[in-house]
Write a structure and sequence with these properties.
With 312 residues, the protein is of the alpha/beta class. It has twelve helices and eleven strands. It is 36% helix and 15% strand. The strands form two sheets. The chain has a six-stranded parallel beta sheet with strand order 7-6-8-9-10-11. Helix 1 runs parallel beside helix 12 and helix 5 crosses helix 8. It is elongated. The structure holds 2-keto-D-gluconic acid (8YV).
């Protein structure tokens, strides 16, 4: 008998196919009526394969009395209530490391594109302005500028290596100081004050909710740039929007938003923001590796072996 699982969202196609061949899988994201969906399978479901921002909370866990494991596609587990899982002795796994390089590439792309305004320059050419108005206005160099990394974890360190290759200086803030060759700032405001570009690379969740607030943006100042590849929840989005509109910071590069995929349309009008639709890890190779790890965690658990990447 194959173990029964629920798939919460539509992710990588290969992963989806393997989940369906190795397990008896039910697609929650296709259910038009959640109640009848749960009536049909809830009593037998032992695993959840989670994708995306759908909240996985006590209510959902209690609806699945046989639930043993939540295997997330992605390193960030902020959509899952870890305390609720811990209390119910439900294992939670994620997909760390396999996405570090891709997410760091995206982060560096946002730094370069935001500071050098390449997307805006390209729009200028496409609009025919080069011939009619002359060269695109000068921007500013990356070399010699300071990148302040808020959350120097595995992804943060991969970003730092790339930024060093561009001639940038690195500083960071974490809850705890690390054994790294970069100067440490005691809090996000000091880091922002000392940075030309502030990179948000922390996990999401209640501990980091809106830690990029008005004080931090004020400290970053009118010459400073904000880049966020972490979670939209880490930034006070309405305040950020106001700071961008009023040019109280120089610009922002954003891969993540508070209520994805809904982005406040006011952002679309900004010429000092570069906006990506959460593509940090979105390559064929990386998404396959993430799916393989998600499946391996389920496979091992149901074979009675320890999982590969356990969070709870
Ligand atoms: C993915 C991510 O976009 O790993 C994460 O935490 O945010 C991204 O890599 C996400 O997992 C897609 O569901």
């Amino acid at each position: 008998m194959k173990p029964e699982i629920i798939i919460t969202g539509k992710g990588h196609a290969g992963t989806f196919a393997t989940l369906h061949s190795e397990f008896t899988a039910h697609n929650l994201f296709e259910a038009s009526d959640r109640n009848s969906f749960f009536e049909k399978c809830a009593a037998r479901v032992r695993g959840l394969a989670t994708f995306g921002p759908m909240p996985i909370d006590a209510k959902l866990m209690d609806a699945l009395p046989k639930l043993e494991i939540i295997s997330n596609f992605g390193v960030g587990v902020d959509a899952i209530n870890l305390e609720d899982a811990r209390k119910r002795r439900i294992i939670v796994t994620n997909t760390p490391d396999v996405l570090n390089d891709c997410v760091a590439d995206t982060a560096l792309a946002l730094v370069i594109n935001t500071v050098r305004k390449f997307p805006q320059a390209e729009r200028y050419l496409r609009a025919g302005h080069w011939a009619s108005r002359g060269p695109y206005p000068f921007t500013t160099s990356l070399g010699g500028k300071t990148l302040g990394i808020l959350g120097l974890g595995r992804i943060g360190e991969a970003i730092a290596r790339r930024a060093v290759a561009c001639g940038m200086k690195i500083r960071y803030h974490n809850r705890n100081k690390k054994d790294v060759p970069y100067p440490y700032d005691a809090d996000p405001v000091t880091l922002a004050k000392n940075s030309d570009v502030l990179m948000v690379a922390t996990p999401g969740g209640p501990e980091t909710n809106r830690i990029i607030d008005e004080k931090v943006l004020q400290a970053l100042g009118p010459e400073g740039y904000l880049v966020n590849i972490a979670r939209g929840s880490v930034v006070d989005e309405p305040v950020l929007l106001r700071y961008l509109q009023d040019k109280r910071i120089a610009g922002a590069g954003l891969d993540v938003f508070a209520d994805e995929p809904r982005v406040p349309p006011e952002f679309f009008a900004l010429d000092n923001a570069v906006l990506f639709p959460h593509v940090g890890s979105a390559t064929v190779e990386t998404r396959k590796s993430m799916g393989d790890l998600q499946i391996e965690n389920l496979r091992r658990h149901f074979a009675g072996k320890p999982v590969v990447s356990r969070v709870v």
